[in-house]
Amino acid sequence: MDILAASFRLARIAEKTLDGLVSGAVTRTVPAGVDLVAIRHATSHRTIEPLRDDKHGTGVLNGNSIKYVTSEMFIGYENVTHLALDGNPIESIEPGAFEKLSQLYELLLSFNDLESIKRGVFNGLSLLHTLNIEKNLISVIEEGAFDGMSSLFHLDLSGNRIGSIKQGMFSGMPSLFTLGLSHNSIKVITSGVFNWLPSLHVLSLDGNRIETIEDGAFGGLSTLTVLDLVGNRIKLISENALCGMPSLQVLCLQGNHIEIISPGAFEAMRSLIRLDLAGNRITSIGENTLSGMPSLEFLDLQDNRIEAIAPGAFKAMPLLTRLVLTDNPICLTTKPDEPLRAWGLPARAKVEC
Fold first, then answer.
1. CA-only gyration radius of the chain, Å
2. What is the dihedral of CA 280, 281, 283, 286, to 10 degrees?
3. What residues make up the domain containing 258?
4. Domain annotation covers residue 59
5. CA-to-CA separations, 266 to 48, 105, 193, 246, 295, in angstroms, rounded
6. Which keywords belong to this entry (predicted)?
7. Cβ(41)–Cβ(63) under 8 Å?
8. Which residue of 33, 290, 344, 348 lies most exposed, with the fewest beta carbons within 10 A?
9. Burial 185-222 (b: 16+ CB within 10 A, else e)
């Protein structure tokens, strides 16, 4: 369960691991006695001297004063595979700027001043595996901006100013495995906006302002394993809001404003192993409130306002091993042997109350 507890951070862990590998690769390409930091700070927006060996090239341009990225900057470096442009004040990228970098595997654009992503900016990057654009000022992503990125595996857009997810925003990435949208300003997840991501396994939407999840919002995410919705403003989980994710194993909803869970809201989650609803405003658990999760092993309901749990409320969870109810009013009135007998919990379940 410790692995599952941490799995919703898979995208972040994967990115940090890749960063470490890339940093190691960069260091190994530097000749003995050469100061890598000095190279980084000596590089101007007009002159690029990527560090590379016979196997791959690495362009290190982070922490400089680059404001505009154009295709002319990369003439002569068509074989570069890793390009670090993070930590600059980049305001705009010319459409087609990376078009000649057809071998590019990783592109780092975090901690810049980009306000939008225009269609055509990433043309020619069909082999790109990792794209990190976190911590910019992005509020607009044009439809089709990621078209043609058939190999993209990790995309991080966390820490921007994205206010809504529009239809077609994420088209063109059939191989995408992790999508980071944490800490933006998203208020509504509309129906079908993720239909273009057939391979997505990890979706991070924590730290937004989400109040509404429309029916079918996650439809088409048949491979999704981890969904992180922590720290939003969700009040209602409607019956069909979470449908369309048959492979989901970890669902994190803690720290929202959830008061109502419609009966059958989790009915289609046959693969769910961990459900975290801690820190919400739930007052009762009905007989069908949490039905439909036969694989569930861990259920966290701590720090809610639960006063009543209906008889048989957990009878459809034969694999449940841990139920956390601490910091709920019901813990003041429940007898030690009552949960297993009345709530339909399996004999091996551990109740924390």
1. 23
2. -50
3. 227-353
4. yes
5. 53, 38, 20, 11, 12
6. Glycoprotein, Leucine-rich repeat, Mitochondrion, Repeat, Signal
7. yes
8. 33
9. ebeebbbebbbbbeebbbbbbbbbebbebbebbbbbbe
- Categorize the per-residue pLDDT at 19 as very low, low, confident or very high, splitting at 50, 70 and 90: very low
Answer whether residue 197 is part of any domain. no
In this structure, the answer to whether residues 128 and 241 fall within a common structural domain is: no
Kind and range of the H or E run holding 68? strand 68-69
Tokens of 78: 């068509």
Integer CA distances (angstroms), 223 to 5, 178, 304, in order: 19, 11, 31
Per the structure block, which two tokens stand in for 91? 């305001």
Tokens representing 254? 């803690």
DSSP H helical segments within the chain, as ranges? 2-7, 10-29, 36-42, 338-342
pTM attached to this predicted model: 0.84
Q: Looking at the domain assignment, is residue 11 inside a domain?
A: yes
Asked if 144 and 172 touch (Cβ cutoff 8 Å), the reply is yes
Rounded to whole angstroms, how far apart are CA atoms 150 and 211? Answer: 32
**Amino acid letter at 2?**
D
| pLDDT band per the 50, 70, 90 thresholds, residue 302 | very high
User: Are 8 and 142 members of one domain?
Assistant: yes
Q: Are residues 244 and 169 in the same domain?
A: no
- Answer yes or no: do 137 and 27 share one domain: yes
Give residue 50's identity as a one-letter amino acid code: P
- Domains contained in the chain, number: 2
Choice between 268 and 335, residue whose per-residue pLDDT is larger: 268
